[in-house]
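I am writing to request your help with a piece of structural work I have in hand. I am sending you one protein, given as its amino acid sequence and as whole-number tokens for its backbone shapes. Kindly check, if you would, that the fold set down in the tokens agrees with what the sequence suggests. You will find the record immediately after this paragraph:
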Amino acid sequence: MNFYVAVTDNRWFEYLSEIKPDEVNFWKPGGGRFSAIQAGELFLFKLHSPLNFITGGGFFLRYSQLPLSLAWEAFGEKNGASDFETFRDAILSYRNQQEDFGINPMIGCIILTRPFFFKVNEWIPSPKDWAPSIVQGKTYSTDTSIGREIWDKVMERINGRHIIEEVGEDGPLYGNEYLVKARLGQGSFRVLVTDTYKRQCAITQEKTLPVLEAAHIKPVSKSGPYKIKNGLLLRSDLHKLFDLGYMTVTQDYKVEVSKKIREEYENGRDYYKLHGSSINLPSDRSYYPSIEYIQWHNENIFKG
């Protein structure tokens, strides 16, 4: 089993260890790539020197590059900051101050689920082979003596916390080996639906990211789950109409627009043009919108 030990912003850790969220965004200020571990594998936090300790971790779900504003909209305080300005200042403190990054730079988002935070007396000293020159992190394997030692110490601390169990999301999010299948939270749901639909509206193929929203087919308030199969990426106005029942998707994945728009608002020409069109489906069939949730929306939300 592989796992990753990441150099962690101390203020980020301190803030999140206080609020203890269900998911976190471990951001990379300069963007870039991350492919060190697979979904479901362990991601550990090692604080900056002089606090050379592993102090907690989470389970890797997905890496995505997002505009700074969207990362805040998706995760809010789960970015490790109390407000957007504090979040932005933290990002900028790590970026080249001479760089013209604009007002809404792209950042890397390592999305972690089921985060855990050790008490100070549980902190684990850095791995024996950890070098001061490591600025981002390092992958370890339980097949090595150092990796196994760290792994065993972490497992000892999280045993009994109901962290490791197979739950939640269906579909090929995970490799052949994994430690945990993790339930999505609100932020990770938004990012995974956005990426699954290739960052374009399922109905119009609009690609302007700030106006795209992850819609629940069956609302969370009605026991709808945070699952990709219960999501559609929609332009914000279509999302509103979908939630209010003026628009739905049929079981053969066609757009259906309610006659109530014309009756109630004496308009809707642009929306009626979409009636009968096929939605843009994910490339992976296992992430197609669930017929069960679509039927629920047709019967309980759509105005007909």
In short: The first strand starts at residue 2 and ends at 8. Residues 165-180 have pLDDT under 50 and may be disordered.
